[in-house]
Design goal:
disordered N terminus; 2 domains; 5-stranded parallel sheet; Rossmann fold
Amino acid sequence: MMNSNILSLITLAFFICLANFAFAQQEDPTLFLSRANARIAKVAAFPSAWEGPKTGPAISATKKLIVLIGSDQKNGTLSTLSNGIKEAADVAGWDFYPIDCYGIKKQRVEAFSRAMALKPIAIILAGIDASDQQKEIQTAAAKKIPVIGWHASATAGPTDGLFTNITSDPKEAAQIAALFSIIDANGKLGVVIMGDPANQYSMVKTNEVANLIKQCAACNLLGIEEVPLSVTPEKMKGVLESLVKRHGKKWTHVIAINDAYLDVIATPSVAVAIVDQKLHFVSAGDGTAAAYQRIKKSMQIGTVPEPVGLQGWQLVDEINRAIAGQKPSGYTTPVYLVTKQNLSFHGGQGNAFEPNNGYRAMYKRIWQKN
């Protein structure tokens, strides 16, 4: 039998460790807000100097075809990405062909078959988890067709059989959205997170927002609503009505992993469900034109957009590196927070995140297309 004194000491040590762990997770509220403010101030200023690659292979002069397989072209961000790719491909002298999966998962295998039949020099996998398409990616690799991802994994760079994956850091984007919400509420908020369970990238953001909210001593994580983006128009009103009944005035903030959720919530037929709630909305992704307009009108307090047009050009550059037998550039765009205070910078007046960092001129110089 274990000595009772020893058992008492072990029990005491356990609770001391547990207390220390809890303290590490929830620091002093004043210090927490101070650190949050410092970090938000830093990401609210996007660099105006180009921080991406400055050297690389000249663009291949031979006319080539690149194919994009997109999760759902109704998504405004994917549409903007396609425009950026098309613009860059035109400069390169290449052809571009998008294939839409219409938000239907079973369409992806067929889309890959269609893409392969076109005999492209490369395939772009956009908004589709590469981990779910390993057989198709291996088939492309066997035919020496590189697959480049955009939001095809939660990790930037070479991963899951991709030559590279273009994305901002989803964890950092999530942290910024959470910290800005906490600052807005002066450290006392009741928040609901909205994310898409069908997408790995989305779930990384959802989990990271939740983890950070739990570190805020006075914050209340009311719940996580996992609503697939493909069904938000039909489901969102019912979701909101249920949340109002459950949480009432304790509910102060919505953090969505994607502005598409807030675009749906803002439609009059859905917004009526929360007309008396006085909610504050923050998005951890996209930066749709509608989100910019809501921020202008104080209907949304912030978004963490990605420079999708720039990323379209980067995708073409990464393809050129792949077919030239070079390594990926390794460039990842820094995270940026858009609020009413900095809305007029970097394309905000045109309701888009369009970095004023000369990326077009730089890629043309790299490709020797000036």
